[in-house]
Design brief:
alpha+beta; 5-stranded antiparallel sheet; 4-stranded antiparallel sheet; 16 helices; 15 strands; 16% strand; elongated
């Protein structure tokens, strides 16, 4: 608060309290250290935030806060006074010389199990007493747990309830939230105004979780992200962070942090008993995924696994062995210039990939020759040294063409303009195939063509891949074997 506001407050309270210094800012109030002039003692004067005062009725708030003034318990910080002064709503509590649990956690990060249990028992006993009076704290958090000479005291008891009762639905309409997101129960985070003791038990479980692990159960960069995790996610077990925490403590905190109120402890006493009972554990039905190796029944699961494996095997074999679907029939119309016309029906062949056609066409001096035309070209080009050739057949890889020359089968590069016997080496692509080598087709039509003509061919028919530098080593060896065994087609 500004100096002007502090001066106004100091003047308004001058007859009862002397403000000494500003202590800090809370979620609902600004805290001042003051001196009680009547009783000669130090007190904490807490002034409600202006935005809360704007929506709360002064008389209604003061009437509601009187309910909490009757709470007298060793671990509850009592309410000394409350009132209105110069439009300020304030309430007065004892000033604790020690530190808050929040300050302790900032310094030490984590507490020992014994110290955490002592603080939990003190706060739990205060909650149990208040719940018996029908009062729910609604804002249990480390900032509201004060430590004085080893004893934990719960502050601001009933303040959140008084503010909620006085503000009513106007708090929701203005977007103000009572409580701290990290420690809100799921029902409080979702805006439920009818809270019972189990909401405080959830908040205490979140505080115990942070005392042991150093972090609250759920964290996020924004309030919305934290609330979303509270409503949808389960916190990690404490044992994953601190393995030496007793199993019953871990189980008790998990039970307190259940999302459904009916699954939590019914009251604070049950929570404290679970924390101190080494035999406490969450029933197995509540944790179905925790199962030892010894308890795994292969006799029940094994047949199911084997049946599924058999089904998968059958499907895999069917996928591998089923016949390939028939290829669609492609019909095209090819027009050729008059000087490149097909001169003999049936005297042509198309490569397996459909990219090249070799056919019998006119030549010089009336002697027919072979022509090659790619589908992406407009004109065909004569293949050199094929004058008088017949019956062209393109190899499966589309790189060579075989043809019948008299009674001899000859082979050559399936490239327009390439001379016979001058095909490229294995490391050089024919000039009619720019870019990558075309894929090798699986069709054996070329070899069947050879077989149909092998009976009329000489033993030199294997010359297509015997001794030619354009053939691979394997092809040349195959050609040599076929030469010793007879005609090429007959060997295949």
């Amino acid at each position: 608060m500004t100096g002007n506001v502090t001066d106004r407050l100091s003047t308004a309270l001058a007859d009862r309290y002397r403000l000494e210094r500003h202590v800090g800012e809370g979620g609902m109030a600004t805290v001042y250290l003051a001196h009680d002039l009547k009783h000669d003692r130090k007190v904490a004067v807490k002034v409600l935030r202006p935005e809360l005062v704007a929506i709360l009725g002064t008389e209604r708030f003061l009437n509601e806060i009187k309910v909490t003034a009757g709470l007298q318990h060793p671990h509850i910080l009592p309410l000394h006074d409350s009132g209105e002064a110069d439009s300020f709503l304030y309430y007065v509590m004892p000033f604790i010389e020690g530190e808050s649990l929040r300050e302790r956690l900032r310094r030490d990060k984590q507490l020992s199990v014994d110290e955490a249990m002592e603080i939990a028992k003190a706060v739990g006993s205060a909650l149990e007493f208040a719940h018996e009076q029908g009062i729910v704290h609604r804002d249990i958090k480390p900032e509201n747990i004060l430590l004085q000479r080893g004893q934990a005291m719960v502050a601001d008891f009933g303040i959140a309830l008084a503010v909620s009762a006085a503000g009513g639905s106007r708090l929701t309409e203005t977007g103000l939230s009572l409580g701290t997101p990290h420690y809100m129960s799921p029902e409080q985070a979702s805006g439920d105004r009818e809270l019972d003791a189990r909401s405080d038990i959830y908040s205490l479980g979140a505080v115990v979780y942070e005392m042991l692990t150093g972090d609250p159960p759920h964290s996020g960069s924004t309030m919305q992200a934290i609330v979303a995790k509270i409503l949808t996610s389960d916190p990690e077990p404490i044992s994953r962070t601190r393995s030496h925490v007793p199993p019953n403590v871990d189980a008790a905190v998990q039970r307190a942090l259940e999302k459904t109120p009916a699954d939590r402890f019914a009251n604070a006493r049950q929570f404290l008993e679970a924390l101190s009972n080494p035999a406490f554990a969450i029933p197995t039905a509540a944790a179905p995924f925790v199962r030892s190796r010894a308890g795994f029944r292969w006799d029940r699961v094994g047949p199911v696994v084997l049946a599924l494996a058999a089904v998968f095997l059958v499907v895999a074999l069917w996928s591998l062995l089923r016949p390939a679907p028939p290829r669609p029939v492609l019909r095209v119309s090819v027009s050729l210039p008059d000087e490149q016309q097909l001169t003999a029906l049936g005297q042509f062949d198309v490569s397996a990939d459909g990219a090249l056609m070799v056919y019998h066409g006119p030549g010089d001096g009336g002697v027919p020759r072979l022509w090659a035309r790619r589908w992406d070209a407009l004109d065909a080009t004569p293949i050199r040294d094929t004058d008088g050739a017949n019956g062209p057949a393109i190899s499966p890889d589309g790189l060579e063409v075989a043809f019948l020359f008299g009674r001899t089968i000859r082979c050559g590069a399936a490239c327009a303009g390439a001379p016979m016997g001058s095909g490229s080496t294995s490391s050089t692509r024919p000039p009619c195939w720019p870019g990558s080598r075309p894929p090798v087709a699986r069709s054996s039509s070329w070899y069947r063509w050879i077989a149909r003509r092998s009976t009329r061919a000489s033993t030199n028919s294997s010359m297509c891949c015997r001794g030619r530098p354009s053939c691979s080593r394997a092809q040349r060896r195959a050609g040599a074997r076929r030469s010793t065994r007879g005609a090429w087609g007959r060997a295949r």
